[in-house]
Every structure is written in C-alpha cells, then in structure tokens.
Amino acid sequence: MMKKSLILAACAALITVGANAQETETFHKYNWFVTGGVNTEAFMNTDGYVTATGKIGAGLWINPWAGLKLEGVAGNTHLLTDSRGQVFGGHLTYMTHLYGGKKYRPFNLNAVLGMGFYHHKFGDILQKYSYMNILTGNLGIQAVYNITPKWSVYVEPGIALQPKYYDVNDKDKLTVSAYLSAGITYSFNNLFDNISKGKSKEAAAKPVNSAEIDRMNQQINDMRAQIEGLQNELEKSKVVDARKKVVLEPMREMPAVNIQFDTMGDYLNEQEAAKLDDIGVWMQDHPNSISVVPFADSQADVALEKELKQKRVDAITKVLTEKYGIDRKRILTASAEELGYVNKTQAAAMIIFMSE
Predict the structure, then answer these.
(1) Does 263 share its domain with 322?
(2) What does the alpha-carbon distance between residue 205 and residue 200 come to, in Å, rounded to a whole number?
(3) Could you tell me the CATH number of the domain that includes residue 126?
(4) Is residue 201 part of a domain?
(5) Contact, 61 vs 47, CB < 8 A?
(6) CA 353 – CA 290 distance, rounded (Å)
(7) Are 295 and 341 in contact, with CB atoms under 8 Å apart?
(8) The organism sits in which domain of life (predicted)?
(9) Tens digit of pLDDT for each residue in 185-198?
C-alpha cells in the first residue's frame, strides 16, 4: 500500500509541473534516442513475479503520435515461496503522446503498448522444467519530465499479460499483473525545431508586440503593391542569364527587398523568413525571376567572405525551392561589386525582382 501511495504521489507531482508548463518550440520529427531503466512487479502478491530487471535500449520518435523503442532486459524473478530465478529478453514498445507532443513542455504524458520475448531460467526449482520462453504484452501510461530538450526521466505504471510461467500445472494459462518502470532517456537530436536551429531560449521567449507585427505587415503590403505596380516595367527590363550574371543598369530600377541574417551566419529569424514566404508565394503566381545579391560581414580572409556570401544565397534558395517549389533557374545571383557596392559589409542579402 505504501509503494502504491508513493507511485501516485510521484505522478501527481509530475502532473503539477506539466500544468504550469508553457509552450515554446515545436516538435522535431525523426528523433533518435537511447534509454535505460528498471522494471518491477514486486508489489504483486502471486507465486511468481519480476523482482527487478534492468533495461537498456534505443528508439525513434517518427512524429508526435508515433514512437518506437526496442530494449534488452535482464534481471531476477521471484518463484514460489523463497526461490529465485532469472529472466532475459527483448521488448518492443509503441508510444504516442497524450499530452505535450506538439510543443515543448517540461511534462509529457504518453500511452505505451508493447510486446516482449522473455527467457525464464529456473534451475531445478520447478522440477518439471528448468526454463521457459514466453511472449508478453503490456499497456501503460508513461509520465515524462524533460530536464532539458535532450535529457528526460520517466515513470511508467501499467499492466502486463503473460503466461503463468511459475506454475507447473497451469503454465499455459494467461495472467494479468501490474508493473512499474522508471528510467532516463537521452535524445541525439533536439526534440524541437527552434532549438535545433540554434535559436536561444531567450530569443524564442521574446514577445513580439502588436505594433511590430503591424509594421511588418505594412512593409509586406507595400512591397506587394510596388511589385504589382511595376509589373509592366519589369517585362521591359533586360535580363542576361549568363552563368547567373545579370545586367547592372536595369537592376538599379527594379524593386528590391533586403533579407537580414544573423551576424557571421546564415540563420533567418521569423521576421526575415516571413519576407521569403511572401516572395515564394509571389513567384508561384508570377513567372518572373529574382536576383540574389549577397553581402558579408567584415572579413579579413577573402575565402571566408566568399563562403559566407554563398551560404546566405544557399539559405534563400533552399527556402524558395524546397518550400515553394520554385525552379532554381529562376533564382539568379549577382555580386555586390557589380552593383557598385565596393567594400560593403553587412549581414544581409538583397533580392531584386527581375522580368520574366
């Protein structure tokens, strides 16, 4: 009774933490992890039960609703009155989030459904047989506390369905028993997208006020109006696609959008990514090309400067091609020097709208 009270108290404490959790980052698919833990049926009052087993394994969260875990198991069992046996085997578990799957929360609640193959060793205790191989099934609820986006601990109460391996006369009959598992898990990939992109917790939690959102929307609307208003002029502009080089003078008269990057990198924050979203939608509706003019932060090494510029071009190209299906041939490049920007250093790239 005392053990059951402790279990309920632990679950209640975890639920209290989960109730106060705030949503931050979104779930990252295809996350591999390793796990280790213990399992027991010690509170079962039967002739045979698992006293304690150790578990170690690995798994994969495919999406918030489907995770698989494969574990190896080894430990001791209680047989008859004062006898002991051993158990070895493997266990496959299917997991799905009941709470906290789509967003990062300190507390998650999962449903688990599993089956295992176990080899029980009895020695000469049961006389008629010295070992038995069995299949088992289990159903449980897993309460998970995320210490960090990579480390977590869990408590899992549940029920198991298995043969009466400890009963010589009724070894083929099935019995239902209760179990309790606990363990720790380490994720190789970050579970959540914003963290895996290198965004700090402070930046992720920083609020955006309504005035800033309105200003951003106004900028996008102004850009749309400018693009539509100059459509006829764009069709008359001259474009030369010679190994992704463009004519200088017509480009100076065309509408352009500045895309800001993080210092010395190619990461786009939410505001800059929204600009690319709008450009991607516009290119889906229009046959025009764009020209990307990359800049670089102050660099003492010419090779590093060239590499940084190319990374920023590649970041823009990846969003437009992979997210919006834009043909790479429609994304041209030009150097800042061709546009008259000599020794221009900044963490940005200019997108210039070209004619069809």
Answers:
(1) yes
(2) 9
(3) 2.40.160.20
(4) no
(5) no
(6) 5
(7) yes
(8) Bacteria
(9) 998 876 554 433 44
The two tokens of residue 355 are 């004619």
Split into its structural domains, the chain has a count of: 2
Range of the domain at 97: 2-192
Contact call for residues 143 and 163 (beta carbons, < 8 A): no
Q: Which two tokens stand for residue 356?
A: 């069809």
State how far the Cα of 186 lies from the Cα of 34, in Å rounded to an integer.
5
Give the span between the Cα atoms of 94 and 140, in whole angstroms.
11
Residue 198 belongs to a domain: no
Q: How far is CA 73 from CA 123, 159, 269, in A?
A: 19, 17, 45
**The one-letter amino acid at 169:** N
Which of 19-28, 33-42, 215-224, 311-320 is least confident? 19-28
The model carries a pTM of 0.47
Q: Helix 270-285 and helix 210-229: axis angle, to 10°? A: 30
The tokens 């041939």 sit on which residue?
Answer: 329
Residue with tokens 């996350």: 31
118-128 confidence digits (pLDDT tens)? 998 887 777 77
